[in-house]
């Protein structure tokens, strides 16, 4: 199959700089502690409509709050949202006006924030994962790139790979963008599957009614799931983007 050359699409991909991790998030617990100040954690959590346990998880860096929860914390603590999220230091007056299109230094008309979860999907022999209700970080994608790919931001989530069964396509610790709305697997595409508490990433092929789950690394055998066993598996979504580090 051949594809025509689209110069506009090529320019988008060359100049997109379509993904980057927001700086300063890793020090969020320190800023949250400062925002709470002298009142008790329980009292602050209650004012934000959250449980004390959830707030303590944020303070310990175990989970990261969603944007709506961050906005509540900023309002309760009377701190700029920009600063609370990323430690940005500048004049927030314009950014924090009602109806502002800016947050954490980004123009939200230009960028969408996609949540990343503390979940590793196995690209090996299997890894157990617990569901995480709150994202641990956000990645920013240019809306121009999302539109080019035909994605809606609410359909996407970020997870991380673990293992080598999908090499050279996916390496351990690669960042995977998952389209959660694509739950009907199609030949040749890569999906995240769930079986109980186990999440794993494989390439899909229809083998006469069976699901054939293929590892790109030839060291690993194919796995055939007959039709009568497929109800045990959930197609979480399709891997639509892979981001990785190169070098040390």
Provide structural commentary:
The longest helix is centred in the first third of the chain and has 11 residues, at 67-77. Helix 3 crosses helix 4. This protein has helices spanning 7-15, 28-36, 41-47, 52-59, 67-77, 81-86, 143-149; strands at 19-21, 102-103, 106-107, 111-122, 137-142, 156-162, 175-179, 190-195, 198-207, 210-214, 223-225, 234-243. The chain starts with 6 loop residues before the first helix and ends in a 5-residue tail after the last strand. The protein folds into 2 domains: 23-103, lambda repressor-like DNA-binding domains (434 Repressor (Amino-terminal Domain)); 111-243, Umud Fragment, subunit A, CATH 2.10.109. 23% of the residues lie in helices and 29% in strands. The protein is α+β, with helices and mostly antiparallel strands and 248 residues long. The relative contact order is 0.12. The strands form 2 sheets. It has a 10-stranded mixed sheet with strand order 1-5-4-6-7-12-8-9-10-11. The chain has a two-stranded antiparallel ribbon with strand order 2-3. The protein is built from 7 helices and 12 strands. A hairpin with a 2-residue loop joins strand 2 (102-103) and strand 3. Residues 1-25, 89-104 and 126-130 have low confidence and may be disordered.
Concise description?
With 248 residues, the chain is an alpha+beta fold.
Supply the helix-strand structural class: alpha+beta
CATH fold descriptor of the largest domain = Umud Fragment, subunit A
CATH superfamily of the largest domain: Umud Fragment, subunit A
Tally of helical runs: 7
Strand order of the largest sheet: 1-5-4-6-7-12-8-9-10-11
Count of beta strands? 12
Label the overall shape: elongated
Poorly predicted runs of 5 or more residues = 1-25, 89-104, 126-130
């Amino acid at each position: 199959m051949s594809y025509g050359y689209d110069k506009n699409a090529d320019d988008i991909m060359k100049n997109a700089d379509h993904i980057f991790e927001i700086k300063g998030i890793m020090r969020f617990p320190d800023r949250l502690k400062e925002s709470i100040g002298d009142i008790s954690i329980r009292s602050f959590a209650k004012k934000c409509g959250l449980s004390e346990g959830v707030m303590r998880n944020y303070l310990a860096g175990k989970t990261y709050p969603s944007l709506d929860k961050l906005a509540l914390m900023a309002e309760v603590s009377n701190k700029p949202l920009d600063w609370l999220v990323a430690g940005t230091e500048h004049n927030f007056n314009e950014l924090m006006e009602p109806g502002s299109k800016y947050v954490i230094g980004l123009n939200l008309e230009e960028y969408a924030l996609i949540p990343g979860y503390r979940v590793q999907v196995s690209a090996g022999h299997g890894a157990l994962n617990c569901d995480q209700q709150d994202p641990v970080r956000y990645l920013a994608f240019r809306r121009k790139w999302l539109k080019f790919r035909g994605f809606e931001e609410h359909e996407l989530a970020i997870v991380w790979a673990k293992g080598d069964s999908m090499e050279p396509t996916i390496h351990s610790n690669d960042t995977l963008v998952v389209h959660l709305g694509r739950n009907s697997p199609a030949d040749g595409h890569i999906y995240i599957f769930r079986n109980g508490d186990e999440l794993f990433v494989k390439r899909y092929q229809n083998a006469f009614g069976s699901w054939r789950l293929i590892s790109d690394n030839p060291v690993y055998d194919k796995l055939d799931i007959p039709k009568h066993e497929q109800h045990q598996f959930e197609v979480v979504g399709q891997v639509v983007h892979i981001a990785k580090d190169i070098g040390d």
